[in-house]
User: What shape does this take?
Amino acid sequence: MSTTGVASSLAPTDSPAPYRWRWVALFVILAAEVMDLLDAVVTNIAGPSMRADLGGGASTLQWLAAAYTLSMAVGLVTGGRLGDIHGRRRMFLVGAAGFTAGSLLCAIAGSPGTLITARVVQGLFGAVMLPQGLGMIKEMFPPKESQKAFGLFGPVMGLSAVCGPILAGWLVDADYFGTGWRMIFLINLPLGAAAFLGALRYLPRTQAGDKPRLDIPGMLLVSLAALLVIFPLVQGREYDWPAWTFAMLAASVAVFAVFAVYESRRSRAGLDPLVVPSLFRKRGFSGGMTLGLVFFSAMQGFMLVFNLYTQIGLGYSPLKAGLVMVPWSGGMIVGFGLAQAVARFGRAVLQAGALVMGVGVFGVWLTLDTAGSGVGPWQLLPALLVTGTGMGLLMAPFFDIVLSSVEQHETGSASGTMTAVQQLGGAFGVAILGTAFFGLLGGSIASSVDHQADGLRDRLGAVHVPPAAQDRVLADLRRCAADRAVAKDPAATPSSCTLLEKDARSAATSPEAAAKVPAALQDTASSAFRGGFGSAMKTVLWIVDGMLVLTFLLAFLLPRHARPEETPAH
Assistant: This one.
């Protein structure tokens, strides 16, 4: 999301009146943002239904999300620059139309390959559509209103993140007109049409001065660099981080360096660069990119791990797991309102948000530590409300501060780069925190089984299972529970679980034992799952808090205020 810069912080007093339909246009832009955020998460919920209908292996589920993320990340910087060249309104319309067409292709897909290809189409057109929004907001809104306009992105992102899984689960279960999972894409057709028609009517037609030319070599270099960094981040855990993932990450650094040198030389030669080098000499923008990378990593990683915890660890349905996050989303709206009231404090509002969000995350940890595996939604409500409030405070001034110093000719580059950093941060967060979570999970569940070993032995002994058989069954259960928790394919049965079933049958030497041994194992496994997931979750929460502390410190790289005239009187 980016925005066009005001011509300069020293705006003339006879500047033109703000665009008449700016608030309506803002909601058109936010509607496009909602479509993107919903489609980024719905396949996580509907994936099993898609696989059951279309076939394919476990990797199919991974690629339904990865294809969208990869294609969007690769195209974002170029998409932002295309707005400078061909006009932001025009490229928004092209992106909205293509995204809607991609959604239709997803809905009618008859094979996994076709569906994955359609997801690529969605991602590429989304990369054309999304960067235009920030630029148009910066063009349409006067400085006094821009923070409020940018701040709305926070609550919208929060609501979309919460509503996406709820909507997907509801549509799949409802099976309207026998469409099943296809309805999660069909619903984009009226949404996309509304966004397109709204853009056609309300988005401003801006007249650019000298149109820059598209930097084709730069486009190829930055696309390659983005692919080299995003692909291993998205797929690394799936393949247990082999050497080639780290080789790709190292290669991406080299390609980014070549891209930076090439862009600088191109700019010095008087040619149009894809990314304007002067952007990174601006304290607000370069500091904002660093802060955004860390913050979006923390936010997206937290969302992923918490959803895994509630749905798998606590056994919540997608609908219930989504409803648990409603206080978090509501807190974002509260935080946004508070941020408007204290907007004059600029960067301090953002830093306060990071601290409040950190307190909320610690509150989640404290709740899990106090309530244990029996934690319920109502117990989590206060901490999630505080977490969301902090996030709303943080995000409300973020885009305004980062983009306030961006000049008109830098807008497209800034928009695409900022949106790409948001995607990259999300990929980093999912990779780092997801890997940490699953790395801890197997050992945590095995330890949880050990803690309940005495109770299981008592139940097995009560039905006359011999001590040697108890030892064997307990060891099998320990391995099975850990293997099942970290299995790449949730539909597959780990070999350790097959062995557990075999040993449990041989241990049940009487009809009474045959009835009670499986129940004892199931109860112990369920309790171990909740305890192990809770233990891994608490460790990850410390990592998230550490990232939020780093976000607070990185905020010192930003200017105190988006504009000098906003400095509060002393």
